[in-house]
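Put briefly, the fold is written as integer tokens. The lines below illustrate.
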Amino acid sequence: MPSFFKSKNSAAPAGVQPANWTTRVRQGLSRTRNNLGKQLSGLFGGGKIDEALYEELETILLTADTGVNATTWLLDELRRQVKRDGLTDAAQLKGALQQALVDLLTPLAQPLDTDTNKPFIIMLTGVNGAGKTTSIGKLAHHFQSQGKTVLLAAGDTFRAAAREQLMAWGERNNIAVIAQETGNQQKGDPAAVIFDAVSAAKARGIDIVLADTAGRLATQLHLMEEIKKVKRVIAKAEPDAPHEVLLVLDANTGQNAVNQVQAFDDALGLTGLIITKLDGTAKGGVIAAIARQRRQKLSLPIRFIGVGEGIDDLRPFNASEFVEALFD
């Protein structure tokens, strides 16, 4: 049976923010900036705007994993701006590209509003290794800093040590955790754990439930069916829940992240994304690829990005801030 691991659920002081987050984003995106920004600075150093420049720019964008669709769209936007504004010097393209990127990414920058329900139930999914459980711990800290009370549900009953990892985050944040009792070889029922977590949150007046789920590949159809069951069980515990279904993506996976978004959205009806480990990759352009993929569909926001290993290094996505950090 699931059990309630009790700890004092005291929030961090409301309004506490890490110092100079913009600087931290810039530091976290240093690898992508070294790959993308410095090459762009060299390309935009001066000279005429011609097809050779566009071809070189295309190569630079694709190297940063911006993707074919987003790269094509950005180049088309630049061509339109060049024609409309009569641009003639390559140095003028830097600002034009920055603005095009901001225009592409801004629709994805939608802060998460957790005040619409109590408890507000957030279900997190993704493949193993994407940083899902760690993101839950950091999210818990983020919501506590807003004065919210939080409860964690250890719904990943399949991965070795997943329960212990979430328990450690609960202890670190001084947050209660609902988890499966251990002691036998049989895997626990993730739906039962999360059902009990929602019930406990309702009884205790908790603001937010963060529900972990087992990592799986989008191609593992039997496991995808299982996670659909988890979502249905949450709805039985609380009508209209889960209120948010977040897919955690590892930025290092590059273009494969685009495929993951599609597969998990088809299965679960995603409401948002968390993109982690941007500090560990030179391919942060994948955010542009995701943005372009979703442009002709219902908006799928990037709720949070991770730019470091610190507990404060997972924060809401800001398009202008992100683009600015990509350029020297």
